[in-house]
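stage 2 :: seqdesign
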């Protein structure tokens, strides 16, 4: 029965070819074999992908520029839909999947008739929880990660659903995209997964949480700055964080409490500005301000 099911695995790369190769190798070692890897390479580099381009299990979409996480995923999703794959799994390139992950996800989906599932995600060495699902605080408009940082050995959870899935890894029945649509490309990167999760709920869908298998994730590998004088994360990441959070809240304003949202955002933005000013991180200070201004001007 499993052999009749096909899965398209969409992986986005942006310059981190070392991570991408390791991720793809973990997928190729999967016990489930009826899959195709859709590798979307933002700022395509022919020399770096020469070996992968020869593998028949891999289709490469070549972008001349960095289109961002949301648009690149949409490119992979559209390719998968055009080629009629039953399921689409979105997978970060800085991950390693357990060899039974695909098989167990398919079994869960079939047994429970669950069309969207997020698996358990550990940190890169597999010792701690990175994401065991998420919760939404509708009063403050915040999005928490369940069990993050807890020791994996002591992990126990009876949660079968999550309020929102992380774009790091999610397993989705292909038909969902025909009904709900694609990722909102205006986000570029960050919060597009939360936005999609809210839209799923609006369409009557729940997001399942599966803890029977897992993957390991190297956090923010593609977001780290090459310039270390202002910290590890790129100033642009902080810009997207501020802008997209506010844009998300504006887009789904009916789901959140206006007073709570304004209070939290005021504290959040002021905290960032004061911290970056004290630490003399003026580029990040400017990008936080720019993110706030651009978010205010963003239209639904």
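stage 2 :: out
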């Amino acid at each position: 029965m499993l052999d009749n099911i096909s899965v398209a695995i969409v992986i986005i790369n942006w310059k981190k070819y070392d991570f991408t190769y390791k991720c793809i190798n973990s997928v190729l070692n999967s016990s489930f074999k009826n899959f195709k890897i859709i590798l979307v390479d933002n700022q395509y580099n022919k020399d770096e992908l020469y070996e992968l381009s020869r593998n028949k299990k891999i289709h490469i979409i070549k972008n001349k520029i960095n289109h961002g996480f949301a648009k690149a995923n949409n490119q992979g999703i559209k390719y998968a839909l055009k080629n009629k794959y039953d399921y689409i799994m979105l997978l970060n390139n800085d991950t390693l999947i357990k060899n039974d992950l695909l098989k167990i996800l398919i079994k869960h989906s079939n047994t429970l008739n669950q069309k969207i599932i997020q698996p358990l995600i550990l940190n890169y060495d597999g010792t701690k929880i990175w994401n065991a699902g998420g919760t939404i605080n509708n009063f403050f408009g915040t999005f928490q990660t369940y069990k993050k940082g807890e020791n994996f050995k002591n992990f126990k959870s009876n949660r079968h659903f999550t309020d929102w899935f992380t774009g790091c890894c999610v397993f989705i029945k292909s038909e969902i995209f025909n009904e709900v649509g694609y990722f909102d490309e205006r986000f570029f990167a960050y919060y597009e997964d939360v936005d999609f999760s809210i839209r799923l709920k609006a369409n009557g869908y729940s997001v399942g949480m599966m803890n029977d298998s897992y993957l390991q994730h190297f956090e923010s590998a593609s977001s780290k700055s090459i310039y270390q004088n202002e910290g590890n994360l790129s100033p642009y990441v902080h810009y997207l964080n501020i802008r997209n959070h506010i844009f998300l809240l504006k887009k789904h304003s009916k789901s959140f409490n206006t007073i709570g949202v304004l209070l939290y955002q005021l504290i959040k933005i002021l905290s960032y500005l004061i911290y970056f000013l004290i630490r003399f991180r003026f580029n990040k200070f400017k990008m936080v301000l720019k993110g706030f201004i651009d978010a205010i001007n963003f239209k639904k």
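stage 3 :: structure notes
- The two ends are 44 Å apart (CA to CA).
- The first strand starts at residue 7 and ends at 13.
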